[in-house]
From TrEMBL:
The gene is ilvE. The keyword GTP-binding does not apply. It is an enzyme of class 2 (transferase). Belongs to the class-IV pyridoxal-phosphate-dependent aminotransferase family. This is Branched-chain-amino-acid aminotransferase. One of its GO terms (cellular component) is cytosol. CDD domains: BCAT_beta_family. Pathway: Amino-acid biosynthesis; L-leucine biosynthesis; L-leucine from 3-methyl-2-oxobutanoate: step 4/4; Amino-acid biosynthesis; L-isoleucine biosynthesis; L-isoleucine from 2-oxobutanoate: step 4/4; Amino-acid biosynthesis; L-valine biosynthesis; L-valine from pyruvate: step 4/4. It catalyses: L-valine + 2-oxoglutarate = 3-methyl-2-oxobutanoate + L-glutamate; L-leucine + 2-oxoglutarate = 4-methyl-2-oxopentanoate + L-glutamate; L-isoleucine + 2-oxoglutarate = (S)-3-methyl-2-oxopentanoate + L-glutamate. It comes from Methylophilus medardicus. GO terms for biological process: aspartate biosynthetic process; isoleucine biosynthetic process; L-leucine biosynthetic process; L-valine biosynthetic process.
Length: 305
C-alpha cells in the first residue's frame, strides 16, 4: 500500500503517496487512540461522487468528540480534502480513508500535550469480499470474541483501537474457512460483523440489532430508509439472538466497504435457501442505483468531487 504513485492529503497539503510517513513514536501507533472513516466514491453519469460525505464527516468529528480529541481542521476543510483526494488521484470510483491521529511529542498515556494530525487517502477498491460474495452470499461464523462492552470502549466512535477486536474476530473466522465473523455482545445477543452491521429478514419484515454496542452504520441507515420508503417494509430494531439468525429467511451485512453482502450460512446452517434472498437482492439493487446516481430522488446523498 505504501509504495505507489498518487497523493495523500496530510495536514492541509497534498503530499506524494510515498512521502506520507510519520515517526515510529507516533502516539496512536502505540496506543490506538485515533479515529477514522471509511467512505466510498462511485462513478455516476454526472462524474465521480462521494456517497453521504456529510454523514461520514459528521461521524468522524463525533468520534473525535467522544474520544476527547481536538480536531485541527473544521468539517468544511475535511470535506474538501476528501473531494480533493479522489480528484487528485484521478479516481473514477474508490475508497477513502480519512483518519485523525496523535503526534509523537510524548509517550505515556496522557494525550494532553499531543498534536492531532489528519490524513485523507483514497484508492481504487472493488467489492470488499469479492464479486461472488455480492451475488451468492458468504459463509459466516459466530465469533468466540465478544463485541466490546459499552463501558470498556466507546462503540459509537469509529476508533482505531476498537479494531483490534474486529481483526481478532475476522482472523479467527478466516482461519476456520469462513469469510466473516458475527460478533455477539457481552450478553450473547447479535451485535455486528467485524466491519459491518447485520440485518435479518423473516416473514417479510426486516430486523436489525439496536445500536447499543454496534457502530452507527451509514449503510445501515441507508438500507433502513430504502426498505421503509422504497419497499414499504417494516423495519424493527431489537435485540436478536443467534438462533433467530439461523431461522431467518434471509440475512445480510451492510457497510461502506461490504456494501450489501448476503449471508448464506451462519455456523454451518443455511439461511433460507442458502443463497442470496429476493428481498436482499432488491435492497442491493436499490442501494447500487442510489450510490451510482441512478436514482435522482437520492441525488442529495451524492457530492461530486
Ligand atoms: N460496524 C463496524 C464495526 C464497522 O467497522 C463498519 C464500517 N465502517 C460498520 C459497522 C458499517 O458502517 P458504515 O455503513 O458506516 O460503513
Amino acid at each position: 500500500m505504501a509504495d505507489r504513485d498518487g497523493v495523500i492529503w496530510y495536514d492541509g497539503k497534498m503530499v506524494n503517496w510515498r512521502d506520507a510517513t510519520t515517526h515510529v513514536l507516533t502516539h496512536t501507533l502505540h496506543y490506538g487512540m485515533g479515529v477514522f472513516e471509511g467512505v466510498r466514491a462511485y462513478k455516476t453519469d454526472k462524474g465521480t461522487a462521494i456517497f453521504r460525505l456529510k454523514e461520514h464527516t459528521d461521524r468522524l468529528f463525533r468520534s473525535a468528540h467522544i474520544l476527547g480529541m481536538k480536531m485541527p481542521f473544521d468539517k468544511q476543510a475535511i470535506s474538501e480534502a476528501q473531494r480533493a483526494a479522489v480528484r487528485e488521484n484521478n479516481l473514477e470510483s474508490g475508497y477513502l480513508r480519512p483518519m485523525a491521529f496523535y503526534g509523537a511529542e510524548a509517550m505515556g498515556i496522557s494525550a494532553k500535550t499531543l498534536s492531532t494530525h489528519v490524513i485523507v487517502a483514497a484508492w481504487s477498491w472493488g467489492a470488499y469480499m469479492g464479486e461472488e460474495a455480492i451475488t451468492k452470499g458468504i459463509r459466516v461464523k459466530t465469533s468466540s470474541f465478544s463485541r466490546h462492552h459499552v463501558n470498556i470502549t466507546m462503540c459509537k466512535a469509529k476508533a482505531n483501537g476498537n479494531y483490534m477486536n474486529s481483526i481478532l474476530a475476522h482472523q479467527e473466522a478466516a482461519q476456520d474457512g469462513y469469510q466473516e465473523a458475527l460478533l455477539l455482545d457481552v450478553d450473547g445477543f447479535v451485535a455486528e460483523g467485524s466491519g459491518e452491521n447485520v440485518f435479518i429478514i423473516r416473514n417479510g419484515k426486516l430486523y436489525t440489532p439496536d445500536l447499543t454496542s454496534a457502530l452507527e452504520g451509514i449503510t445501515r441507515d441507508t438500507i433502513i430508509h430504502l426498505a421503509k420508503v422504497e419497499l414499504g417494509l417494516e423495519v424493527i430494531e431489537k435485540r436478536i439472538t443467534r438462533d433467530e439468525v439461523y431461522s431467518a429467511d434471509e440475512a445480510f451485512f451492510t457497510g461502506t466497504a461490504a456494501e450489501v453482502t448476503p449471508i448464506r450460512e451462519l455456523d454451518n446452517r443455511a439461511i433460507g435457501e442458502g443463497t442470496r434472498g429476493p428481498i436482499t437482492e432488491k435492497l442491493q439493487s436499490l442501494y447500487f442505483d442510489v450510490v451510482k446516481g441512478k436514482n435522482p430522488k437520492y441525488a442529495h446523498w451524492l457530492t461530486l468531487v
